[in-house]
Design brief:
By secondary structure, the chain is of the alpha+beta class. It has one domain. A three-stranded mixed sheet has the order 1-3-2. Helix 3 runs antiparallel to helix 4. The chain is globular. The mean pLDDT is about 95.
C-alpha cells in the first residue's frame, strides 16, 4: 500500500517515529491523518525515513487489507523494515 509521506518535527508527531491512518485510528492518537498518508519524524536521516515509510506502508496494508490488529501488523512491519539496507 503506497502512502504519501508527511514530514513533521518531533514535537508535532509525539513519541512515534512514524504513524499511519489505521494505526492512528486504533491507538486513538488523534493526529488526524488521511487514509493515504503517513506521518514521519523529520529528524531522521533520509535512509531512516525511507525505512519508517516502508514500515508504515506494510503496517497499513496488514491492518486495512488483512484486518490485523495494530500489534500483529506492527510486528510484521518491523520484520519488513529490518530487510531494508
Amino acid at each position: 500500500m503506497r502512502l504519501n509521506a508527511v514530514y513533521l518535527s518531533p514535537k508535532n508527531i509525539g513519541v512515534w517515529a512514524g504513524m499511519n491512518y489505521f494505526a492512528d485510528k486504533e491507538l486513538k492518537t488523534k493526529l488526524k491523518l488521511r487514509k493515504n498518508s503517513a506521518l514521519i519524524d523529520n529528524s531522521f536521516s533520509r535512509s531512516e525515513k525511507h525505512k519508517i515509510l516502508v514500515h508504515e506502508e506494510v503496517e497499513a496494508y496488514y491492518m486495512k487489507c488483512k484486518k490485523l490488529p495494530y500489534k500483529k501488523a506492527h510486528r510484521i512491519a518491523l520484520k519488513a523494515e529490518k530487510m531494508i539496507k
